[in-house]
């Protein structure tokens, strides 16, 4: 129980690292919370004009979601950390991004971090979900639409692929469902703008 609690807290603290802000400050760019959508994420950092900063943000936000899950998966058994803890640390890292303790609990939408968590849960699940995001993003050019569609498909992929491409675990399934619901909630405003035709496309300056 103690080891599990420590792992969950550590995952939340790692997830609370807002790399959109950290990378922007390191590279001498404006705080991403001060322009565009105000969201500290890779898509908004891209509006700064720096593709390198956006790519670094994307990769690091994904890495911080993957790392806690991977560590528990590989090294957790001797400490009694099973799939239940694995699900909790993935969810904790995701919640850390949404509600970061270092940045006044005001974080991003969690797209890249959730992708990292899914890659930690099951690599092929992560690949399938990321591929879904890419397909929608390439054809429609709306990050919010791509994220919402991928969020809906992720639990379905995990359930349908259970016993075929990966082992199905109930705690992990419910962690994915919770992440999907939170992602959809975080994109509620974006979806409203999509319906009204005012949503910005990927790379477009938000007026």
Short structural description:
This protein is mainly α. The protein has helices spanning 2-15, 19-26, 42-46, 51-75, 83-98, 111-121, 123-140, 143-161, 170-186, 188-196. It is built from 10 helices and no strands.
Main sheet characteristics:
none
Q: Which series of helices and strands comes N to C?
A: HHHHHHHHHH
Q: How many distinct beta strands?
A: 0
Q: Average pLDDT, to the nearest integer?
A: 94
Structural class by helix and strand composition? mainly alpha
Described by the principal axes of the CA atoms, the overall outline is: globular
Descriptive account of the structure:
The chain is mainly α and 207 residues long. The chain has one domain (2-196). The chain is built from 10 helices and no strands. It has helices spanning 2-15, 19-26, 42-46, 51-75, 83-98, 111-121, 123-140, 143-161, 170-186, 188-196. The model has no long low-confidence stretch (mean pLDDT 94).
List keywords for this structure.
single chain; 207 residues; mainly alpha; 10 helices; globular
Protein topology:
Elements: H1 2-15, H2 19-26, H3 42-46, H4 51-75, H5 83-98, H6 111-121, H7 123-140, H8 143-161, H9 170-186, H10 188-196
Helix pairs in contact: 1-4, 1-5, 2-4, 4-5, 4-6, 5-6, 5-9, 6-7, 6-9, 7-8, 8-9
